[in-house]
Structure formats: C-alpha cells, structure tokens
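[job 4417] fold queue: 2 targets
>>> target A
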Amino acid sequence: MKKVLILGATGQIAIWAIQMLANEPELTQTLFVRDTKKLPISLPTNATIIQGDVLNLEQLKQAVQGQDIVYANLAGELEAQTQNIIVAMHAAGVQRIILINSLGIYDEVKGKFGEWNHQEIGTYLGPYRKAADLLEASDLDYSILRAAWLMDEDEIDYETTDRDKDFKGTVVSRKSVAALVVKIIQTPSFASRDNLGVNKPNTDANRPYFM
C-alpha cells in the first residue's frame, strides 16, 4: 500500500490530484489542511483528513510519519515551510517529495513575456527560489514543478522543460499540473531529483491570454 501525504490539500491543483487518485485501491491519501471545513469535495474512500499547520513542526512530523511520498501544494511562507518539511521527512525517514513552485525563479522566462512576468510577480519569487534551493541542497528525492500561469480549463495538455533550459509557453491548466503530480506518485522513479518547468504547448505569447 502506497501512502501519500498531501500538504495544502485544499489548493486547486491538489483537489484535481486528490480526485485523480481517489480510485486507486493500493494507495492511501492523507490530506493535511489548516481548516478541514474548507475541503471543497467529498472525502474519497481512500483518504483521511487531518488539521494542522506546516509551520508547526510537531504537527508536521506526526503527519509525515509512515508516509511514502509527500506532495506539497503550498503558498505563503514557503521557505520556512520547506525547511520544516525537510526536517520532518528526515525525522520520519521519508525521501520522496513533490513540490509545486513557480516559473521565473531562475530568470528562465525570456523575451516580452519574461519582462511582463517579472513585473507582475518578480517581487514574490524570492521564497519560491529559496524553497527550491533548499530541496536541491538536501538529500531528499525531490521533483520541483515550476508551473506557468495557471488556468481552470478541464484539460490535460502539458510539456516540461529542464532546469537549465528557457521556459516555454505562458499558461498551463491546474488539471495538467495535477496529472503530472499523479504520474510521479504512480511512478516515483519518474522525474527523480528533477526541477521541471511545466506549460501548455504552443502558448508562447507576450502574456497569458486571460491577462
């Protein structure tokens, strides 16, 4: 039985992933949320939900214990949260982690879109970069997913770029990012110690279509 801990389980990408994993009989999901009342879907039969805060190290250590994979879908104090996750995973002897991150943390977004992206979110990217740096410096088996601007289309259509490559496209659906998360959960050797940009193919533009 594979055990997955989902941190930030009320996030929109996480909700897609939870539903995709709901019918996997050989997998259990532990949904870690700050407010159990905010889960916008019915609890799947293979899931349990616990209330806690990733910034509370003792709560996090208890949640990580006995898990096989940690999937972090977080925002806010991302550097401090990532530090706690690393400590908790070491304490529990858990190695595999998937972290949702953002495009632009390496100035890998080029051209007019890169200029626009930096203007819009550049001041917010410091903690995302620090979170990625912390994972890459650790001995954990990580997958860092740097998502393009997120959209709500009900589609799975994505491509990836390596850490040292220019970012492609401008947008990607939340469902697509969730599908990539699920692929990694199903095949943990996939994207092992990889840092990937994630975008919808053929969406190059000066800015996202909805902006």
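>>> target B
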Amino acid sequence: MFFATRLGELQREGRYRYFAELERLPGRFPVALFHGRNPATDGASLRQTTPREVTIWCSNDYLAMGENQHLRQVIKDAVDRLGSGAGGTRNIAGTAHEHIKLEKTLARLHQKESALVFTSGYVANETSLSTLGRTIPNLLIFSDAWNHNSMIAGIRNSGADKVIFNHNDPADLAAKLAAADPSRPKLIAFESLYSMDGDIAPIAEFCDLADRYGAMTYLDEVHAVGLYGPHGAGIAERDGVAHRPTIIQGTLGKAFGLVGGYIAGSRLVVDYIRSHAPGFIFTTSLPPIIAAGANWSINHLMNSQAERLAQQASVARVKQRLRLQRIPFLETSSHVVPVMVRNATHALEASNYLLDYHNIYIQPINYPTVPRGSERLRITPGPFHTETMVDKLIIGLSEVWEKLSLDRAA
C-alpha cells in the first residue's frame, strides 16, 4: 500500500517517470527506433505494434561519439583481442594494460600527474568525496548549492561537516570560508558546468579563495569534458586554469561516447584515493574493451575540432530559432538549452505531444532534478542535428506552446 500510494502521488503531480524504449541505430544518430513507453511499476508496457523512427534531442552523447564508426571499430577489435569483461576488481583480477594507458591519457588531458578510472561518473564522485571526507580528520567540505546528487551523496556518506554556499557565488563562499576555523582542513566542491541550467562556475575565483584560505578544490567537469578547451579538457582548460584544481573529476559516458568515470590530480592525491576508496577497491573494474575505446575517443577529441565546431553551430542555430519564436529558454554560453515550461504536468504533456505527433524525443525534467516551478525540456543540440530536424523541432515546440497556452518569452 505504501509503495502504491507514493507512486500514485508522483503520477498525480506529473512527476512519474515513464521510460521511452529506444533502440539506437548505429551511424544514424540522433535518429533512433521508438518501441513504446515503459512504466517501471509492474512491467506493463505501452508498446507499439511497429517501432517508428524518432529524433533524440536530449542525449548526453553530446558529440555523437557513441556512433563514431572508427570508435566502434576500435571496440570490435578490442573484443577480439581482450574478450568482453574485466574479470573482477583491479586488486583481485589484475589491472589491465588498457586501464593504465587510459589513465595516462586522462592525466595528460587534464595536465595532472595521475588519474584513476571508475565504473561511472557517479561512482567517481560519490566514492572520492566520501573517502576524502571520511578519512581526512576534521575535514570541512564547502559544497555549491546546486551540486549533482552524486556529489551530495558522497559528502553526506562521508559523515564530514559540510557548509553549503550559494550557487556560483564567490562572495558567499568567501564569507563562509572566513567564518570557518582556520586550522581545519577544507575542501571546496563544485561543478564547472551545471547540466540543468547550462551555467558556468567562476573556477578561477573559487581557486583564488582556496589559495587564500588553504583549501583543496574538487572540480566536476562531467558536462564539459570533450566539449570545451583546445583539447576538450573542459572549462578549466578553456579558461586557462586547469593546473589549479586539486582534483578534476570527469566522465567517459557523455562527450566521449562510452561509460565510466575518473579523477585526475597529483600522484599522491590519486594514489591516496585509490588506496582508500571502497567504491574503487571492491567493485569490478571497467571492461578493458571500454578503456581501449575511451583511450581512442579522448585522443581523437584532443586533436580534432570538427565535432566541437559542428555541435557549437547546431547549438547556435537552435537558440536563434527559439528566440525568433519567443519560446522561453535559459540564455547561457553553454551547449545546454533548457526550454522553460515551469509546470510538471505541462512538461510531461509537452514531451508526450512532441513524441506522439512529431516523432521528437525530449524527456521532461521535473523535481527533484530541478526545483518545483522550473520544470523544463532540456535540449542538447548535437553535431548531426540537421537544419530540417531543427525546423521540425521549432514547429513542434510552437504547437505545444499554443496547445498548452504557455507563456512566450518577452
């Protein structure tokens, strides 16, 4: 009864998550086959008799590297060389040569001495932050108010004292650092690019404060790696401050087109986490075939601007068309385009309408991912979204705004 009641509340509020069953089509991204909607409750499925093609507009495969034919061939070749799995933890089954090569590439990407690979970005954040907070005596962690759930979970699970500072606010952080005991070890945890609003942190100012108050810094670059900077190392590289954060955390599962997470930092800091982090020590390692693919993808994007330039052109095209139609979205300098609906039920209705009538897939973003009243459709234009696809997107969104009587931008 408890579970049914709580799920019913989610459905009444328009926050229940229906998963669209999609089948990727290699070489045709962002086009995919849509099989139907799948409620998570009892396995019941609103399947279609015949799958139909839809255009995905909300993928975090930002540069479509997951569809890159060269990357796919690298992984196929790696399967023949290495087999499919990892065989266990790196401590028990052994560290694969591909893991070492990947970590050296990641360290070079971020201008750090060392790197460590995890099974996901979430695990990298949760286990690194929880390990630091749990094992450094009396550590005080300063956390941006909009940090990702993985960072929040890591800090909470560490049991360390924490101070929440206002989002992207150096003045508030400075005041809270000044109020803290000068003798306590400190860590400032924040993201470079916040994926729901697309806004960017003042990394240099936060690092200046860390220097002034003797704090370490932990920078999550998950939504920026591959996309920004001359080599795709993220916002810190773009801003010329990649050498300053104590630890940089990133993912292999977004712009690099695979799966996995990592941290990069000094040899001592990375070795310390490697030696103390349960989420690394006790879990099966990333399959070597994935490490081989990631190594190729990172090296490719360190030297190629084509994917980034095509994506940036697509983002600019979509933003301009939204402005012309007065469809409200959050104006930022990043690739994330949050189209603001500001109502959970309407966001779900808008998503369903686009899928049912325009073959456009954009998942609604509701609470608790974003605050109530800021519900949205989060659009991430990619390098292979054509002008025809953009035309169809704008037509569909304009119809939604009329159908639901949503407010236009001023």
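[job 4417] complete. Note on B: Residues 354 and 397 are 7 Å apart (CA to CA).
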